[in-house]
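Design a sequence for this backbone.
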């Protein structure tokens, strides 16, 4: 299939209202994907960063076969295929365009590890093509996309697993049960901490597009702009067109856990402040960010801190969460370790360190066709990402915002509501009707 045929097919898909068959889109869902004892054939899309972990994690699963690697950088793709062949002693199919992956009837499911601005659209297209999806965090680049991803997963009855691995940790599951059972009393506050070393990235300015990179496909839904080495392959995180800052990067694990532990959804009041105080580089997102999310109707609050350099730990935590109740508090360090401290004397309470396998949980749900088995269902892709987006909007507008979580709109704030979505670039458009 040539690129014009691929583009035409997915232009139609973006505006689809009727059946997929009516517009010439793939409707074939491999029967063997539903068999409890049959092989699940997978493609990994985006293999330079987190995609490497996807390949390794999925390849460990019984009766799961990674059959295709996809990347818009031909050097990355070739290196990935070579490494794969050496490690697993077999060849793997390579593709440069994710739409070709979706047209391959022999692929049952995909994992998506592209830059953030591609996550939701790539996952929606996969659902429309009959593929189950494991998508990296954040599941959406803006609030609107998260809602559309839920709609797509529901309409096409697809398993969509969000890459919030800590939800599969046995220790963290136990910690949440303690919170629900009242171990630390009435839980009223959660803190999320993201203290990661983020250096000066300088300002390389625009330059010629490398011959190995399909810059048009890399930009995808974003508006077209000149190439810069500041974007590819990691520092796109710090530019609004592609990333969401560290609260929307590492922070999604912690926003998710804040909401899970407090047993809340999106907030009603958001205040954020911060900025760039360290480096005179070209990052657009704040280096330091403090966000407060209030839930007046339930008497709860989330505090979130992003710091990039030279900072103290909080009870030993650089990346993690703290929960406060009227009888004690809980410290969650990383993805698989919790401790509790009870009473005024902070007496040590229950504690545990134990991990889990988020990929295994995804495959279990795919085989069983049972979404209730998922530890990281599609709703977490919307909510954990969404609260980070709300904090970023409050920061960018520089004022406290009031939000209606039921209708998912800001109250009487046109400027803020415009930032709930983005202007898309055809044919890479998140459809209004999935």
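Sequence:
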């Amino acid at each position: 299939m040539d690129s014009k045929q691929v583009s035409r097919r997915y232009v139609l898909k973006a505006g689809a209202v009727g059946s997929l068959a009516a517009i010439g889109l793939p409707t074939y869902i491999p029967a063997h994907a539903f068999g409890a004892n049959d092989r699940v054939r997978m493609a990994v899309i985006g293999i330079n960063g987190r995609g490497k972990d996807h390949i390794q994690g999925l390849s460990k699963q019984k009766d799961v076969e990674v059959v295709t690697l996809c990347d818009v950088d031909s050097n990355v793709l070739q290196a990935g295929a070579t490494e794969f062949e050496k490690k697993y002693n077999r060849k793997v199919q390579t593709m440069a365009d994710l739409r070709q992956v979706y047209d391959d009837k022999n692929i049952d499911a995909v994992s998506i590890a592209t830059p953030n601005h591609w996550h939701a659209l790539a996952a929606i297209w996969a659902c429309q093509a009959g593929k189950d999806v494991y998508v990296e965090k954040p599941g959406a680049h803006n609030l609107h996309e998260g809602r559309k991803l839920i709609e797509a997963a529901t309409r096409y009855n697809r398993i969509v697993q969000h890459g919030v691995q800590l939800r599969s940790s046995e220790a963290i599951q136990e910690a949440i049960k303690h919170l629900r059972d009242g171990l630390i009393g009435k839980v009223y506050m959660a803190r999320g901490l993201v203290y990661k070393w983020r250096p000066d990235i300088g300002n390389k300015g625009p330059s010629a597009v490398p011959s190995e990179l399909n810059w048009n496909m890399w930009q995808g839904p974003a508006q077209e702009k000149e190439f810069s080495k500041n974007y590819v392959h990691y520092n796109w995180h710090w530019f609004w067109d592609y990333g969401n800052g560290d609260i929307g990067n590492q922070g999604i694990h912690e926003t998710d856990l804040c909401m899970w532990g407090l047993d809340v959804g999106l907030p009603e009041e958001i205040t954020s402040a911060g900025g760039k105080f360290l480096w005179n580089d070209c990052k657009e997102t704040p280096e330091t960010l403090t966000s407060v999310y209030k839930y007046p109707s339930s008497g709860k609050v989330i505090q979130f801190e992003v710091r990039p350099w030279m900072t103290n730990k909080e009870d030993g935590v650089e990346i993690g969460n703290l929960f406060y109740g009227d009888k004690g508090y809980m410290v969650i360090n990383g993805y698989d370790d919790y401790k509790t401290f009870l009473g005024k004397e902070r007496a040590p309470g229950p504690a545990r360190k134990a991990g889990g396998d988020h990929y295994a949980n995804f495959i279990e749900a795919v085989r069983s066709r049972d979404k209730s088995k998922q530890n990281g269902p599609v709703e977490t892709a919307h909510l954990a990402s969404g609260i980070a987006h709300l904090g970023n909007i409050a920061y960018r507008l520089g004022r406290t915002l009031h939000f209606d979580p039921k209708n998912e709109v800001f109250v009487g704030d046109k400027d803020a509501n415009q930032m709930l979505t983005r202007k898309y670039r055809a044919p890479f458009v998140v459809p209004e009707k999935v």
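Confidence is low (pLDDT under 50) at residues 1-5, 14-36.
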